[in-house]
Amino acid sequence: MFSSAIAACRLLVRRTSPIIFAITMGTGAISGLFGVFPYAYHSRPIMILSLIVYFIDLFLFTLFTILAATKYICYPKTWVSMFQNPVNSLVSKQSHHFETMTAMWLLPVVTVIVTGTSGGVIANAFQPHVPHYALMTTVLSAFMVSIGLSLALMILTIYFMRLVVHGLPAGPAILSVFLPLGPTAQSGLAISLIGESFHVLIPLSDPSSSKFMTSVFASQVIETLCICISFVLWSLATMWACYALLAIGTRLKESIIPFRPSFWGLVFPNCVYANLTIRLAGTFDSTFFRVFGSIYAIATLILWICISIRAIWELRLLIVAPEISENITCASNESKIIHFQLPVQASARTSVTQLV
């Protein structure tokens, strides 16, 4: 029994990859979604649920960090394979082909936008105490969101062309069709927070500041412009959500999509889309946005629960029968060797499909 547990732990460490942090991204977004749910807003049961999910997410992040650190310390050669991986590697050697492109190209860009959103949240907390730092944080957030959104729109243009020319991604990579919701909806949320922050911080009380920073109308114009941009980005995200649902429906008619860790990539984009919808409901005092956002938030919560249950079941199989999982891993590695011997074009398609 003890040896079986040791074997399961070793296998768990060896199979750890950066994709597991998609679990903490999705779970953290679910926690935030509880905090903004428009019905029973900030009620005690809702806040308790939000805190429970938050501490679960904190525990998972700590656990995954330990697993990842253990893997790269005990198996240092995996650093090389990770940086040569066309999916996991974000900043080093990669081989890209237009026909094998997926929306996963957006993942490095989303991190910049999420950082900008975090800055908008922090700036709101700074405002009553240190408004000078709040203004600096807001400007930095606007800078990061501008960069992230610009790059995201460029990539989305290429991705849309790839869908038109080559059709839907093959195999389990079809799940990546929901990823465009991430940068579009997250940017809309960030810009909304930035506009709200500028509205509070401007005009400055210092008479030596520029006319723009001391103008009462400047803050109103900035906030109005940010709200309009947020709505445009929500509309763009809605379009991609419709495309994604149609793509998943089309693929399900052909075959069943097997469960993989990449299923966790569905949670975060849908969470931020629901979050932006609910925020626009408050901005416009709109019943439509409020009801639609609540329904979408509940659907995303159900999705998270279903994926969590299936993931726990897969983990149970790993712990109960690690020798079976080990055999499967070995067989999978052998199959990857065969795939890598194919021509370049087919090899690139197969490697992305295998790893996503």
Automatic annotation (TrEMBL):
Keyword Cell membrane: yes
Entry-linked InterPro entries: SLAC1/Mae1/Ssu1/TehA, Sulfite_efflux_TDT, Voltage-dep_anion_channel_sf
Location in or out of the cell: Cell membrane
Membrane disposition: Multi-pass membrane protein
One Pfam family matching this protein: SLAC1
Keyword Cell cycle: no
GO cellular component: plasma membrane
Transmembrane segments: 20-40, 46-69, 103-126, 132-161, 173-202, 222-249, 261-282, 288-307
Domain of life: Eukaryota
UniProtKB keywords: Cell membrane, Membrane, Transmembrane, Transmembrane helix, Transport
Entry GO MF terms: sulfite transmembrane transporter activity
Stated family: Belongs to the tellurite-resistance/dicarboxylate transporter (TDT) family.
Name under which the protein is recorded: C4-dicarboxylate transporter/malic acid transport protein
